[in-house]
Amino acid sequence: MNEQDEIINRIPIRLSNRLSLQIHQFPLLSRPLQAPPSAEASGKRITARIKSQSRVLEIHVPADTRTEVYNSERGHEFGKGQLDDDREKNQERKGGKGREGEEPRLAEIRLRSEEIPHRGTQMLGIVHENELHLHPINATHQFRPTLTYLDILSRKSRRRAGDDSDSDSDDGPPPDPDEPVPVTAAKKKEKKATAGDAKEVQVSARRTDDKGGNLSQLSNARKEMLAIIRAEQDESWQDLQFCGMTTEEAGHSLDQFFSYKSEELHCSTDVTTFLTAAQKA
Amino acid sequence: MYIIFVEGVRKASIKNPYSLLGSGSKPKAISSLAKRPSEVTRQGTQKLKFVPTLPARRSKDAVKIEPVPDTIPASSNDRGRGRGRGRGEGSGRGRGGPRPPAEMVASGPFALGPAMAGTSSSRRFAQAATPIPAPSNTKASPLGAGLSQTAAPKIKREEQKLEKDEDEEIYSDADEGVEIIDMENVGQMDWMAPDSIIKEKTKRPKKEDPDATVQEVNIANALDGDEDEADEKDLETMFDDLNKMNYDTDNDSQYLCLFQFPSPFPTFSAQPSDTMQTDAPVTPGSKKVTFAPDVKLETEGLSSTAEVQELDGLIGHLEVYRSGARKIRLANGIVLDVSPASQPSFLEHAVHLDMKENKLTILGELFKHYLVAPDIDALLNAMDALDSGSQTVLAGEENLIRMDIT
Which stretches does the entry tag as region Disordered (chain A) (predicted)? Predict the structure, then answer.
């Protein structure tokens, strides 16, 4: 370090922890999280809901339903799928409008969150009146659109398509690799053989160590995963009021963010704790 | 590639004229396949005619037959497009149409290499709510009408990048109902319009900034090594973004920054004399656990031992050095270095979740990420002091050799 390095600016740092702060990450590159103007004009707003025990949030952004950019037939199809999916998972919106009850439309994009573990201590800093205000962040959530309505629709179409549907199911944990090979694979092989060759080769795959679909033989890790998934599905949603950046509530929260007292806080640890704590851990 | 294609045409000949089309495209007009004398080569096959395609922007209700037929692109056009895509247009949002002549920069979070991710992804802020245009009528409309002609609100980029290209492309006059759309302006046509790929400006005004001439290694610049223009610009922004935040007192609250501190974060408490501290191990990111019987608490009742004490006060200083280095100096000799972390290119919101009132309030969008690490010199000195302080002094120690058993 250059010893002649002089300080040109010195900003006091303040700490406060009044709020319960979170960071939300969205797959948006250059646009803000906003409802399209056509939806806002018809009164739709962004809504949110949370499952606090499972630490999952959902943000619903109304979609642009103008005919130039929206396919109504598909919208109705997906809307019905979404309604069925909601009913299955017991998360149906109660008190829906009468019109929506008759012909449901997919009019919103659902973003579902996943919590990301923190590395180190994350702090949000805002420079306000020549002072840096820090505030600890509790959790970071990454949001992605959920298309669970497609699952239901594909399940219906698969049932309709063939009687020899494969044995792995859509709902619940991902297809169990221990389950027997589906019947359709054998059919394809037959067709290939009759094309040109005279010989017919029968190929069958068999698992030597059959863990089986027996629940009692599932490994512990899998049981835990299933338990977590089940607990999450059982928990019900809690609706939240979504306040954007420009609302009054946002201003109020921002006021609460800043630290106001000018007393000096007493510090009871020093630099070495960074290393010693790491050694202990 | 061109030659191979011609052979293909010969084989396919006229048995199935539709085999020339790409899969999935409906034949709209077959004029390109009709053999005109000028179009047939000496060997009798059809000469390929390059016809630019217009972006197919049709409303579902009205499919009017244009006076100029939407000619089927000859397959060479398809190949060309495929090649272009393969060349790395990033998100691949370009469609067939008048190709922008200058080089294009691929956009998207993964299209850029890891080194570039820091420079171009400076986050920006939503403009004030754009005036909501009245939704257009859904009449049957010719191509391109019925769109609101307003762009989706773009998050404002940093000032340097807002330079508008002065010379607009001048195209030939539109003839007979065909609307000429500049590919760069597609994003402004409608809320739902895709974003155009950003063109890299070939001429950038060189900035004369005395601070930027300091090219020595400094920890403030994590992207050392390159002498790129982009890096120079980065140097500038990293030098004075904190300063800028200070002087810009009007809307300073919009610069939300994420600081990643090493854990455990130093424990702070309100009153110096009367606090008792437990020795509970502090896990990363968890709240500080302190017993403070005499401290006046603000809101939450102190019922269980796990309650967090509410903090509000001064903890230290952020020092900005001439070389661009920034240090955080807290009490007890804690010195931390601040350096810019890799900037995310996606949107991040700082959000206040109030479970008591069931409210989710957006405080703002994050501007930059910073990484905070202990200053190594200070840390090692402190460790030495700690080690030497904890060792018992034996009589006649100076004659003994100290064995390091750590």
Answer: 67-110, 157-216
